[in-house]
Amino acid sequence: MAERFQNLLKQFSMLTPVRQATLVATAVGSLAFFYWIATASGTTEYRILYRGLEDAEAAQVVEVLTAERIEYQIAEGGTAIQVPVNRIHEARMRVASRGLPSGDSPGFEIFDQGTFGVTDFVQKVNYHRALQGELARSIEQVEGVEKVRVQLALPERKALLRKDERKATASVVLRLRGGYDLEAGQIRGIVHLVASSVEGLDPSQVTLVDNLGRLLAPQSDLDPAGGGAPSMLGRARSLERDLEDQVESILERTVGLGRVVAKVNAQVDWTQTEKTEEVFDPNSQIERSTQRETESSSDSTKEGGVVGIVANSPEAAPPASSTGTDSNSSRTSETVNYELSKTVSHHVLPTGKIERLSVAVLIDGKPIAAGGDGAPADAEGGEVAPAFTPWSSDEIAEFEQLAKRAVGFSLERGDEISVINAPFQALDAEFDEPSPLTPDVVAILMTLMQGIVFLIGLFLFRGSSSVPSRRRSVATTRRRR
Questions:
Q1: Contact assessment for residue 51 and residue 146, using Cβ atoms and an 8 Å cutoff
Q2: Global pTM?
Q3: Tens digit of pLDDT for each residue in 404-457?
Q4: Secondary structure element (H or E) that encloses residue 265, with its range
Q5: Quick one: the chain helix, strand, coil %, rounded to 5?
Q6: Which of 258, 263, 191 lies closest to 226, judged by CA?
Q7: Strand ordering across the sheet containing 215-217
Q8: Which of 138, 147, 152 is nearest to 207 (CA)?
């Protein structure tokens, strides 16, 4: 063994300094390469099994993994557990068979275990806990939501008809994943999900807060008309973008694509007004009621003398005659009531009335290349260089009229518009193009590089091992001579 080592040293000393350095570098590189291959192939890739677990629940999951002989790692400060990527599905099924993770609040499985002697109060408390747990599990299915805690306040009904009865309320605390932010539609969906799951709960009584303490619902700037309208600020910005798109789309047909920039500032009145009007028409009369009254009276007087024996005797002188008078009278009255026609109208004026618009339009020059139509060219090589040719004042005025028509310009409203012709600065295109190196492409390139480096190391190792053999054959030939 010592003789072989001495022969190797003699052969190495017989080489030139350049070959010695090449041999040493090749040997070191080959050893490093094979060490890298060995360590890379032996490294196990881990992925997240569960994240955001409480300490007690994480301990239970670790206990299950240990019993099942599944390797694991603790990450993210003890709140996450990682397992090998090739056993992640097996680990989830093994852990799920033990009823983990169960979450902070149990669901309706709390009633699976029948107990005797449970009071009505305990049953109500268990029902509230189960309902809170089921709601938390449902909300956790929303993308971006990591952890949920729900608290319900359900007052008891003491009377059937009671005006001062308290309303049911709900409080929801969300913990979002890193980089996620709930949209307005997702917030409305969570609020209505909670309100629909609890009897007598109004969506306005649901309070939604994230883990940073931001109030997500209810929002005072939501449209009172309902329908899940976005906030007033968002609606104003949407209106401004629509007006900007209209101006740019109509001017780009003449100026050129990407050569117009429009900005609109809209002052919007969000006051909601209700108006009731009663209008009477004096020329239109309608007979409403008629009342008639009739009165009649009559008087009569008859002829005759004194009643008695003296008046009936023939010797008695005839008395003075008396004459009677008959009288008849009648009166009729009629009362007619008329009513004027009346129109009652109730108007609810929509919110979002535009009070004032400020429009700014920036237009690039005419798309004319340098060296043509009087544009200056490069003095040295005659190469075509970018040039700016402004639009005429009449053309700018026409562009202004088109912009006014597009946004509904109104002088009475006090709108303002400004159209400016200025050169645009060219942007570097390489910053706009997305990078082609996606994670999948990077993984493929790393695999290819690993194979190429392996082949290069193999060839270098074979070349370095052939140098001493050649030297040995030359030395053997010399000795024989």
A1: yes
A2: 0.39
A3: 999 999 999 899 999 999 888 765 444 445 556 655 566 677 777 777 776 776
A4: strand 260-269
A5: 40, 25, 35
A6: 191
A7: 145-153, 169-176, 206-210, 215-217
A8: 152
